[in-house]
Specification:
Chain C: Keywords: FAD, Flavoprotein, Oxidoreductase. The structure holds 3 protein chains of 3 kinds. By secondary structure, chain A is α+β, with helices and mostly antiparallel strands. Helices cover 28% and strands 24% of the residues of chain A. Chain B is elongated and about 55 Å long. In chain B, a hairpin with a 2-residue loop joins strand 3 and strand 4. The chains are: A alpha+beta, B alpha+beta, C alpha+beta.
Chain lengths: 759, 182, 275
């Protein structure tokens, strides 16, 4: 029986549940013996010039070994995203100006961690406050400039449409609906904050232990910043406590830590606090969207326009690129004849933005799925019906959209049908009608989302090495980089399936750039369809290699040999009891190891449909997610345990954005959500259990049919829940409420609608 | 200042600054690194350990406050020292996939141990409310809730099905705790 | 994040604690459960030179019937209030309110005296004690005094308690197991209340209503109470609940929203309390 598709419990868990995982700050590696602790002094102001920094008192504080400021730091300020305005350089320690609250201005190195916090308080920075610009539209006016030398706050022209659509874009539409919606800024907030440790060997090489989602590209980034040859840098990833996109690549602090270690000639370690993390770690979403949808009263959608303004934060990073995905995925699952989009990216005096679970695609889905509900509301059509009427039909695949994406496979209407059936959609509508008729305080809202997204879209190439050892154990090396996704188990399953060696004997290694010099890490739901397929292919090749070697031993032709998966031995086909040789024995004679690089060449497009049910207390505005049915189709399921776990986590983060989470800055750029007490991460008490509905439509892009599922739940659940809450109060005259759907916002929307209707 | 704390059944004693947090005492003085610190505001619960058998957040307890008391961390649960899942809660977390990145896990496990100790007859709602002090960013809690129900000897499928159709509010309530509540 | 360094004292009796308070005056802070104090010390918003830990003062830990009242030692932990058989029977509002404070871990450490001394207007317990018309017993080397909760708070986080005084006891009337309700409205389960309303029925049948987070101190819904006394309906009376309040503005709500919300919660609490 094949192990693929079975529920294998994770091999990584026994350690995680006994002595605990080993994160960067847990390391007791002897190379870090005697490491100094780095404490960064961070700006309390969002925009200011620095008149002077006095570090004398700090230098004399107990345990202080050194204090450095921007004046001491000779790492050249870097452009953190290549396509950004070339003047928008980020210094590694601020020199003349700070541009967001939390920007590092000095580094204090102490023998003990506690001493660092004391000494950091003694660093005296004389700031001259400047006007800050926080609002994206204000920033676009270029009245307050973050980088006067740039002459503008606009970061890039890369997402501007080549030409404006004609005046007749919506001319053939009976109905056109347009409005501005906010896809608010959120924090990835992995439970493990950022951390890095560094030491320099006598050979002049530097080793950095750090928390990231992709060791190899982080190595290259840090090497670039430090002006080093990447060969002289080794990155080692201990266990990583969650990433969600915010740990893609290197943070400037990693380079700073390496530089500090060299400067003082001792190993150093840095582990930020949560308060630092909530301003220092990149944040996600942060788009202002204008959606315009047009069509006919029979429910035919004919034209869709999406105008995006994206917030880059103070120093442009990966967030600059993400509107590319938003624009590409703008039409979602629908066959819309005319689609037009554009995006501006603007710098503000806030934390930099980058990827967060979905990274550009959830923003597209939220926009089109709100647009579909607004359109349905306007023409008085059931939102599920409207969707089914407009989705791309199965026979149209592969389908090239007006957004420029080539969708590989999908059955979008069936997904909507299955999710609605599971939810008893008709029954829910009937209950909703009863409550409306009675005028209950607790109104029911039903939200539907249909989604398609891109996975494996960032990097198509991934590698794997599979080696069988003479003792019968197997090592798998992968360029992917798990931080909760269970690759140690999943990759072992893939290898086990081909090698006939049990999962317990297979060790998966990742995240050491000396051991695995190339690889693209774990992001964009790419791992299984790139790295997983690479492991599969490597294992298949290894069996072929073993057969060639066994041919000599068994004195048979390669074509007559096969692997007996029950024993992990090469045997002669159809000759039971004949001579055989195990993979382990072959490995004893000569190294049995295969390196395989797999180029998927294309991304895949998983899809699904979610149905959310919420209750809204119309007297208080409190909305509560009661149930959610999630159909997420990512092709064949390798391990349902892990597959469902990824969906659960994704669904929760989507609900969290819809209902609770928002990073808020005041008009001066002061963060109002800089702790977990203020930022609304849900606990178990705010969420229901999730109902999962399965469907498996394989891709043709890889031999296994695998698509990615890491971000699917987030992309599907957020618009479903958003739509559901508005649906619950739509009969009161409410057509839209921006996320997060907090009680005060929902109540205010109802209150305003009632005032409006009373006029 | 000298403290003496029994940790996972063993006597420990160190000279510490009074401001030393219990979490740091465990991690730095004793080298017990399972207990993680995830926030500054007593919000996330990653640092949850038992003090005299009750769950507390060790980032908000001074080591000196635990002087002469007994502390249990995940490393002190049955079988942990041998690398084995000898405790019903850790076994259930693996079986139900109640962990992904693992960072919240030691605190979540200890909160669950305390919760089951105080109320062995748990419903899904009890578990969700009982874990309100522990944040997880990976699992959406679905499988954590199942794991705790399993560890408490409940059937998680039945408990979740009952909760789903109960009509009782699963989630952050306008906590009506009046007598009409029961 | 870690606190600024301090001297630590752990007296084992009230007298010893008072002697230390007298010695150190304004430089000292009392630590009970520490779940209000340590977070602000870690964020370095407070930096006392001396911390006097009363966590081991056993004489402050009790719940007992004393005549017409229940006497609760200031060091009594939330958890012990939640599971108290005496309170379930004699003053059921208090354990019900207490089990909404923080989360289980917080309730294992936090104390009633600590919550009242901290005096957060968004805290649950000050308003509950206010609805109960409880009494705070303060002791200092100068002696003991009893301050009605109605006279205790003077502003945000401030009260009539002198620096050398320690809250040693809280006294509440025996309001029984019925006729009460607590409506707490939060974003997340363990957040502070956006608004909360505590209702209790006094011995003479009058309803007393305590409001959480509707001003700089816990408040009574006086207009609602008066309207009820005049025989107005619950609906009519609850509509007056925001009178005399000055609710704060923050991410969770505008003052206008809170003024609306308090009327909804008051109505619901009164209906629940009416059974």
């Amino acid at each position: 029986m094949s192990i693929l598709g079975t529920r294998v419990v994770r091999t990584e868990d026994p350690v995680f549940l006994t002595r605990g995982a080993t994160y960067t700050d847990d390391l007791t590696d002897e190379r870090l013996t005697g490491a100094l602790h780095v404490t960064l002094v961070r700006s309390p102001l969002a925009h200011a010039t620095i008149n002077s920094i006095d570090v004398e008192e700090a230098r004399n504080a107990p345990g202080v070994v050194a204090v450095f400021t921007g004046a001491d730091c000779d790492i050249a300020p870097a452009l953190l995203f290549p396509a950004a305005n070339k003047a928008m350089l980020r210094p590694f320690l601020a020199t003349d100006r700070v541009r967001y609250v939390g920007e590092a201005v000095a580094a204090v190195l102490t023998e003990e961690a506690y001493q660092g916090e004391d000494a950091a308080d003694l660093v005296d920075v004389d700031y001259e406050p400047l006007d800050a610009v926080v609002d994206m539209k204000e920033a676009l006016k270029d009245e307050v400039l973050l980088f006067p030398e740039a002459g503008t706050n606009s970061v890039t022209a890369m997402h501007l449409a080549k030409e404006e659509p004609g005046d007749d874009f919506f001319a053939d539409c009976e109905v056109v609906v347009s409005r501005e919606i906010v896809n608010q800024r959120v924090a990835a907030a992995p439970l493990e904050t950022r951390a890095a440790s560094a030491y320099w060997g006598e050979d002049g090489r530097c080793t950095i232990f750090c928390s990231t989602q992709n060791a190899q590209s982080a190595r290259d980034e840090v090497a670039g910043w430090l002006g080093m040859d990447a060969k002289d840098l080794r990155l080692i990833l201990p266990d990583v406590g969650g990433g969600f996109g915010a740990k893609i690549g290197a943070d400037p602090e990693f380079a700073l830590v390496a530089w500090l270690s060299k400067k003082v000639g001792r190993p150093v370690r840095w582990n930020e606090s949560r308060s630092e993390n909530m301003t220092g770690m990149v944040q996600g979403r942060a788009q202002l969207q204008t959606i315009t949808i047009g069509g006919d009263r029979d429910g035919t959608v004919k034209a869709y326009r999406l105008d995006v303004v994206a917030d880059a934060g103070a120093y442009p990073r990966l967030g600059v690129a993400l509107p590319m995905f938003t624009r590409m995925m703008a039409p979602g699952t629908y066959d819309i004849p005319k689609v037009w989009s554009t995006a501006q990216v603007v710098a503000t005096n806030t934390t930099s933005t980058a990827a967060y679970r979905g990274a550009g695609r959830p923003e597209a889905t939220q926009a089109i799925e709100r647009a579909m509900d607004l359109f349905a509301d306007e023409i008085g059509m059931d939102p599920a019906e409207l969707r089914k009427k407009n989705v791309i039909k199965p026979e149209q695949f592969p389908f090239t959209t007006k957004g420029g994406a080539e969708y590989d496979s999908g059955e979008y209407a069936k997904a909507i049908d299955l999710a609605c059936q599971a939810a008893d959609y008709e029954g829910l509508r009937a209950e909703q009608a009863r409550r409306r008729e009675r005028g209950d305080a607790l109104q029911l809202g039903i939200g539907v989302s249909s989604y398609v997204e891109i996975t494996g879209g960032g990097a198509f190439v991934e590698n794997a090495t599979v080696q069988v050892h003479p003792d019968g154990t197997v090592t798998v090396l992968t360029g992917t980089s798990p931080h909760g996704q269970g690759h140690a188990t999943a990759w072992a399953m893939l290898a086990s399936e081909e090698l006939g060696i049990p999962v317990e004997k297979i060790t998966v290694k990742h995240g050491d750039t000396d051991l695995i010099p190339t690889g693209a890490g774990t992001m964009g739901s790419r791992s299984l369809q790139t790295g997983g397929v690479a492991v599969h292919n490597a294992a298949v090749e290894l069996v072929e290699l073993a057969k060639q070697r066994a041919a000599d031993v068994l004195e048979a032709s390669v074509g007559d040999l096969e692997l007996d998966k029950a024993t992990g031995s090469i045997v002669v086909k159809g000759a039971p009891g004949a001579k055989s040789v195990s993979l382990a024995d072959l490995a004893g004679t000569e190294e049995l190891k295969v390196f395989h690089e797999w180029d998927a060449k294309k991304p895949t497009f998983p899809f699904g449909a979610h149905v959310a049910v919420v209750e809204v207390d119309v007297e208080s505005g409190k909305a509560t997610v009661e149930r959610i049915w999630a159909l997420d189709d990512a092709g064949p399921i390798l391990n349902p345990l892990i597959f469902d776990g990824q969906r659960h986590g994704g669904i929760a983060q989507g609900i969290a954005q819809a209902m609770l989470e928002e990073v808020v800055f005041d008009s001066e750029g002061q963060p109002l959500t800089a702790t977990f007490a203020d930022y609304g991460i849900p606990s178990a008490a705010e969420l229901p259990s999730f109902d999962l509905v399965n469907m498996e439509t394989p891709t043709t892009i890889n031999s296994m049919g695998f698509k990615g599922v890491g971000e699917a739940g987030t992309i599907g659940s957020c618009p479903a829940v958003h739509n559901a809450v508005i649906d619950a109060v739509s009969h009161l005259g409410v057509s839209h409420i921006d996320m997060p759907l907090t009680p005060v916002r929902v109540w205010t929307a109802i209150h305003e609608a009632q005032k409006e209707s009373a006029k | 200042m000298k403290v003496e704390i029994t940790v996972n059944g063993e006597h420990t004693s160190h000279d510490v600054e009074p401001r030393t947090l219990l979490a740091h005492y465990l991690r730095e003085n004793l080298g017990l690194k399972a207990t993680n610190i995830g926030c500054d505001t007593t919000s996330c619960g990653a640092c949850t350990v038992l003090v005299d058998g009750e769950a507390v957040k060790s980032c908000t307890v001074l080591a000196v406050q635990a002087d002469q008391q007994s502390v249990t961390t995940m490393e002190g649960l049955e079988g942990a020292a041998q690398g084995e899942l000898g405790h019903p809660v850790t076994r259930a977390f693996r079986q139900e996939h109640g962990l992904q990145c693992g960072f919240c896990t030691p605190g979540m496990v200890m909160a669950a141990v305390s919760l089951i100790d105080e109320n062995p007859d748990l419903t899904e709602k009890d578990v969700r409310e009982g874990l309100e002090g522990n944040l997880c960013r990976c699992t959406g809690y679905h499988n954590i809730v199942r794991a705790v129900l399993v560890a408490a000897g409940k059937d998680p499928d039945a408990a979740q099905a009952a909760e789903a159709v109960s009509g009782e509010r699963t989630t952050a309530p306008g906590f009506s705790t009046g007598e009409g509540d029961k | 994040m870690i606190p600024v360094g301090f001297d630590y004292q752990r007296p084992e009796s009230v007298d010893a604690a008072l002697a230390l308070l007298a010695e150190h005056g304004d430089d000292a802070t009392v630590l009970a459960g520490g779940h209000s104090l340590l977070p602000v010390m870690k964020l370095r918003l407070a930096a006392p030179e001396v911390v006097i830990d009363i966590g081991r003062v056993a004489e402050l830990n009790y719940i007992r019937v004393d005549g017409d009242e229940i006497a609760i030692g200031a060091g009594t932990r939330y958890r012990d209030i939640v599971i108290s058989d005496v309170l379930a029977k004699e003053c059921a509002l208090l354990p019900a309110v207490t089990r909404t404070v923080g989360d289980p871990q917080v309730r294992h450490r936090g104390t009633l005296g600590g919550a009242l001394a901290h005096g957060d207007p968004a805290g649950d317990l000050p308003a509950a004690i206010l609805a109960l018309e409880g009494t705070i017993v303060l002791r200092s080397p100068r002696g003991e005094r009893k301050v009605p909760i109605t006279e205790f708070y003077t502003g945000v986080f401030s009260s009539v308690k002198e620096p050398d005084e320690l809250i040693v006891e809280i006294r509440v009337p025996r309001t029984g197991s019925t006729g009460w309700a607590y409506e707490k409205f939060t974003r997340r389960s363990n957040d502070w209340a956006i608004v909360a309303v505590a209702v209790v029925t006094a011995a003479d049948g009058a309803r007393r209503i305590g409001l959480v987070n509707m001003g700089s101190t816990p408040l009574r819904a006086k207009a609602t109470e008066a309207a009820l006394a005049e025989g107005k309906s619950i609906e009519e009376a609850a509509a007056l609940a925001a009178e005399g309040t000055e609710p704060p503005a923050d991410n969770a709500g505008t003052p206008e929203y809170r003024r609306h919300l308090v009327t909804v919660l008051t109505r619901r609490a009164l209906q629940t309390a009416a059974g």
